[in-house]
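Q: I have 174 residues here and want to know how they pack in 3D. Can you give me a structure?
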Amino acid sequence: MRLHDLKPRPGAKHRRKLLGRGESSGHGKTSGRGGKGQSARSGSSIRPGFEGGQMPLIRRMPKRGFNNARHATVYIPVNLDALNEFEEGARVDEVALRSTGIAQGKANRAGIKILGTGELTKKLTVSAHAFSASARQKIEAKGGTCELIAKHPESTKAPKVSKAARTAKAAKTA
């Protein structure tokens, strides 16, 4: 096979639609542009959301209010019955949960939360970012321990410092 032998796959290339080739072609007269108006003119392009001079919907909607979802702490949920996969007396942490495929989700979440759904049959040392009250109770009832670990560094953002505070701090150090 040589470079001159290469061809696109069958069906990958389409013939260009020929416009303005007479009435009987089906693409004559107005050539698929309808009758007159803004979109019939050459060089016409209307940006997305443009409503012909009417106040667009995005500008008509109110932009006030507080959205709590933006500030919510979102964990990767793991149910207790999924932890029965580990051996008796094992240490269960984020690495172990991810490697077995139990905890699946993006790392930018606040971490892993153990939930109390199902029954635990083994004594385990569970290390997670959060525990529900029922999960903690069931783990400790089996003789296991719950270790609370700090949140992910990615999920915690640095506090915003105002310009006045920064200038005051700069003045102190100078």
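Q: Anything worth noting?
A: The mean pLDDT is 88. DSSP finds four helices and six strands in the chain.
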